[in-house]
Structure formats: structure tokens, C-alpha cells
Design goal:
Helix content: 25-40%
Radius of gyration: 11 Å
Mean pLDDT: 91
CATH class: Alpha Beta
CATH topology: Alpha-Beta Plaits
Number of strands: 4
Distance between the termini: 16 Å
Shape: globular
Order of helices and strands: EHEEHE
Structural class: alpha+beta
Low-confidence stretches: none
Number of domains: 1
CATH architecture: 2-Layer Sandwich
């Protein structure tokens, strides 16, 4: 398992946090997702999904919700 972090410009509203966790959390290989306090933590199985793909998909969804990604870790 590996964990990646994405920092977001501002804290997520409750509905956006739930939407992101619902969509990303159901992806094959994603073990957990936490979207709180202006950041997203993604724990995933690298044999089922690449970090690059997961970060790209998560970033796209964050931006569709109207938030801006400010840093990837």
C-alpha cells in the first residue's frame, strides 16, 4: 500500500468531500480516501492502479468540483 497527498486551495464543503470520497473510493485499487482540511489523502494498491493515474483522476475531479490543487506530495 502507498499513500499520496494532494493539497487543495481551501477546505472542502461536506457535499464535495462526500462526492469525492464516493467516486474515488469506489475505484479499483483505492483502499481509502480522506478529504479534509484542504487536503486529500489517497491510500491505494500500486499493483491495481498507478499513482500517476490515481492522482490525475483525483485532480480532475477536484477541479470539476470547483477547487484548485496547489500541491502534490
Amino acid at each position: 500500500m502507498k499513500t499520496s497527498y494532494i493539497k487543495v486551495q481551501k477546505e472542502f464543503c461536506a457535499e464535495c468531500s462526500l462526492a469525492l470520497m464516493h467516486f474515488i473510493g469506489r475505484m479499483k485499487g483505492v483502499e481509502s480516501i480522506s478529504a479534509e482540511e484542504g487536503s486529500v489523502a489517497l491510500t491505494f494498491n500500486e499493483t491495481e492502479i498507478s499513482e500517476e493515474d490515481l492522482i490525475r483522476i483525483t485532480r480532475e475531479n477536484i477541479e470539476k468540483l470547483g477547487y484548485q490543487v496547489i500541491d502534490l506530495q
